[in-house]
Amino acid sequence: PAGAAPTLIIFSSCCLPPSHQLNHRRLLEYLKFTLDQYVEMDYILVYFHYGLRSSNKPSLKWLREAYSEFDRKYKKNMKTLYVVHPTNFIRIVWNIFKPLISHKFGKKLTYVNYLSELGEHLNYEQLIIPPDVLRHDEKLRAAQKGEPPPSVKTPPARPPLPTQQFGVSLQYIREKNREAMIPPVITQTVTYLKEKGLMTEGIFRRSARVQLIKDVQKLYNLGKAVNFDEFGDVHVPAVILKTFLRELPEPLLTFRVYNQVQDFLNVESSLRITRCKQLVESLPEHNYIVAKYLLSFLHMVSQQSIVNKMSASNLACVFGVNLVWPRHGSISLSALTPINIFTDILIEHFHTVFGSRCPPAQVMP
């Protein structure tokens, strides 16, 4: 659809089998078959270079053939080619091919040294990143001498604006918004999505243009009114809601709960709903009220999953990492499973988990 975010196509070198086991002609045909489905629209190609070794590296002759077979129709609508974790080999190949490559196509190449940089350009949640690539990235970042790993949760420059909404605490927002218990960004996105997004297939799964999201954040941070109808894309408020949660200085469900959730796999299945209820009821009152408001809405979204394809478990995969994360470092792959199971229960069994505790300032969407 017009204005929709470009399709993301991912190629991971670490998944290539050894050259002697691979018919490179068939590989080229498969690449063309995949791209043929998308070349009429804008698309972005993400190439994970890590894992390309002498044993599975295609020959330069094949690369040259491949490039010449991809005619203009493939190159025209490719918006950007992200080469993630480039090595000297990539730069050498690029120089060999330079005479063959048009200036226009050359400008589409972007080298990305760390996954956090990629997150600045693309919606991270849309990417299927192989575990080997995640581990490699962690090693590279650890090797950055004396530099803290880049973090998306950098708080805004001190002091924040009185109207600041993103990257500041729930308490700060409440104090600056006439003691409103639910932050305005959450109220406005949830209200809009309840009216116009419940029947949208893949709601919360799709991305929106990165620059557009930054513009909307800026409007909110300056205290300006945001009218989501202007953007003609229901995925904009959905991404804004996830971004708001992700940029809180402390996760909505707190650092303390993150540690307890990691223990979740040791809890017997039949006791997990009760354990969820205990963890949620141990939250500070303000966090509990906001969590109840948000999860009541996500439960409502999951009730329409026949149409929107977003079951409680699908929503948990998207929202889990935006509700809890560790105080230090990033979430490892092994940590995702308990987070997703925990979030799935919060959504699926919302009425049981949030049932009996009644804080004085109860707010429901």
General description of the model:
The chain has 365 residues and is of the alpha/beta class. It has 18 helices and four strands. The protein has a four-stranded parallel sheet with strand order 1-2-3-4. Strand 1 (7-12), helix 1 and strand 2 form a beta-alpha-beta unit. Mean pLDDT is 82; it is low at 149-155.
State the gist of this model.
The protein is an alpha/beta fold and 365 residues long. Helices cover 48% and strands 6% of the residues. It has helices at 24-36, 60-69, 72-76, 88-97, 103-106, 115-121, 131-142, 170-176, 184-196, 210-221, 235-246, 255-261, 272-281, 285-302, 305-308, 312-323, 333-348, 350-353; strands at 7-12, 43-48, 78-84, 109-112.
Considering the chains and any ligands shown, give keywords for the structure:
365 residues; alpha/beta; 48% helix; RhoGAP_dom
